[in-house]
Design brief:
The chain is of the alpha/beta class and 550 residues long. Helices cover 32% and strands 20% of the residues. Strand 17, helix 11 and strand 18 form a beta-alpha-beta unit. Helix 17 runs antiparallel to helix 18.
Length: 550
């Protein structure tokens, strides 16, 4: 049943929207639907009607009562309709650019890895950088590649291919030379130059040290970036995604989206995060121009506090099981985190911090508590991106401090193949602790971390509900006590995602007055075996009342 208060509130919003006050005839009526409104599993309906960019009616009776001569009637034939899906964590430009670059994600042996890199290098003009990658050493047992593996097949091609977690690059000798990295190059604060027993770089560059490399690679042109983003938009729409939170630590995507928006609708909605260290620049933009519109919004900042589990740079209290010499690294000094976050929060910006390890999450929660106490009560909605490995005391703090956990369910079933080797069984009981966070009352939104995981919420839904690792070795679920119900998982991509981006008054649910953003699938997700969730096909994606896919 439809909540009467939601219906009346949505109707009021619709009447207040420009161009809607005097209109009653629908532009489009979608009938014969199996529709989920975005609340409990029982909140179902069978039709949706739109006027312009907004939902005007829900339910067969209200929709048919407003069909006029000019209304286009679409019979969905029983297809499943749900609120448009939001991916709360992407690196959109990087991932979109990688759609046209070498893919190494499914290379299953060192030999195959080398062959693919050689083939990709031969396809490029001499001297052009070979990027992309998404390689995964755990697919062949965990041995880390080195420059010696690939030098012979890339004599004239500088190579900088990234591990799939985006925290570690592999360079060949030519790339090291062009980047000016040799045995005399000092270590970078917050980063690692991996060296062999003789002190020479192996070719592996981690976290902040990657800046030494990226500054040597020619930047793509604005036109190349915009074309890539358009490819990414098309991919997202084909997966039922209607909104993206772009949680980058540069301003490339933000600037490109502003350019694209100046030319018209972007088809997919975007919420831009920019570097926290540049908070003054974002605060000045908000003061001068506001926070954008419902196509391209801004007013949020992000910082990376530690590294990643796969690269052994996430910061833990105890050493790594398979590398006892390290507990991980701190990428951003705590005093900088406190200073930048305090100023950004005081300026009214939303602040998010990347934290993976248990010590890193505690540090960030501590700083967020300090900032909130210093700056006073407001609706700030701090976020922690990943909130991956948590101490026992951290889990209840999210709800208590009103900090949003922004998690990526597919990481659990992907990392679950090898995570026990990194941190052992006990710490894993509090890793990817989705159910514990939801049960504690915390707001939990969900995303992909694309290109680390696929830009496809259905893969995330299946991962959250089943927690079966991608290697097929955990058919009953990896730490199954942390599984979510389908409604809980869907909430992470709909109403919780809307809350995480300050749009719960207009997105995340299908109610009159909200933006007409929804996806149409070929099967009802509530009526199928969860094992088949990823077999579902997106038939249509509607954003702002217009069909953008299908």
């Amino acid at each position: 049943m439809i909540d009467r208060r939601l219906f009346l509130g949505g109707a009021a919003a619709l009447l207040a929207a420009p161009g809607h006050a005097a209109r009653s005839t629908l532009d489009i009526a979608y009938i014969n639907a199996a529709l989920w409104t975005g609340r409990g599993a029982a909140d179902r309906s069978d039709a949706i009607g739109t006027i312009g960019s907004r939902i005007a009616a829900i339910g067969n009776g209200p929709v048919r009562a407003r069909i006029g001569k000019s209304t286009r009637v679409v019979d969905l034939g029983g297809a499943f309709v749900l609120p448009g899906l939001t991916d709360c964590h992407t690196h959109f430009t990087r991932a979109s650019m990688m759609l046209g670059q070498a893919s190494l994600r499914d290379a299953n042996s060192p030999a195959e890895f080398v062959v693919r890199i050689g083939a990709a290098a031969r396809a490029l003009p001499a001297g052009r950088w070979l990027e992309g990658g998404n390689w995964d050493a755990d697919r062949w047992g965990g041995e880390m590649p080195t420059r010696q593996w690939i030098d012979a097949v890339t004599p004239d091609t500088p190579v900088a291919v990234i591990r799939y977690d985006l925290h570690m690059l592999l360079l060949n000798s030519l790339a090291l030379k062009l980047a000016g990295i040799d045995r005399n190059t000092p270590d970078v604060p917050g980063g690692v130059i991996v060296r062999d027993a003789q002190g020479d770089p192996t070719g592996l560059i981690k976290d902040a040290a990657r800046d030494l490399v990226t500054r040597a690679i020619p930047a793509p042109t604005d036109a190349q970036i915009e074309a890539a983003i358009r490819r990414g938009i098309a991919l997202g729409l084909s997966k039922g995604v209607t909104q993206i939170h772009n949680t980058d630590i540069d301003e490339v995507t933000h600037d490109a989206l502003r350019r694209l928006r100046a030319r018209g609708e972007t088809d997919l909605r975007f919420y831009s995060f920019t570097p926290l260290k540049n908070w003054e620049k974002m605060a000045a933009l908000v003061k001068a121009e506001g926070r954008g519109d419902d196509w391209v919004r801004w007013g949020a900042s992000k910082v990376v506090y530690d590294g990643s589990l796969g690269s052994r740079t996430a910061r833990f209290y105890e050493p790594y099981e398979d590398e006892p010499s390290t507990r991980g690294i701190i990428v951003t000094r705590r005093e900088d985190l406190r200073d930048w976050m305090g100023h950004a929060d005081r300026a009214g910006l939303q602040v998010s911090a990347h934290a993976i390890g248990d010590e890193a999450n505690d540090d960030v929660l501590d700083v967020m508590a300090e900032v909130a106490a210093a700056n006073g009560v407001r609706d700030r909605r701090f976020r922690i991106e990943h909130a991956q490995s948590l101490s026992k005391k951290a889990i209840p703090r999210f709800a208590r401090q009103k900090v949003i956990a922004s998690v990526q369910p597919f990481h659990a079933v992907d990392d679950g193949r090898w995570a026990i080797k990194r941190i052992g069984a006990e710490r894993l009981t509090r890793t990817y602790a989705f159910h514990s966070l939801v049960a504690s009352g915390a707001h939990v939104c969900m995303g992909s971390d694309w290109p680390v995981a696929p830009l496809d919420p259905l893969t995330g839904l299946k991962a959250a509900v089943l927690r079966e690792t991608t290697d097929g070795k955990n058919p009953g679920g990896w730490y199954p006590e942390q599984r979510l119900s389908l409604v809980q998982a869907l909430a992470g991509y709909t109403r919780e995602a809307a809350y995480a981006g300050f749009t719960e008054d207009r997105t995340g649910r299908l109610v009159p007055g909200h933006l007409a953003d929804f996806a149409v699938l070929d099967r009802d997700l509530f009526a199928i075996d969860p094992e088949t969730i990823t077999d579902a096909c997106v038939l249509r994606t509607v954003v702002g009342g217009k069909q953008r896919f299908g």
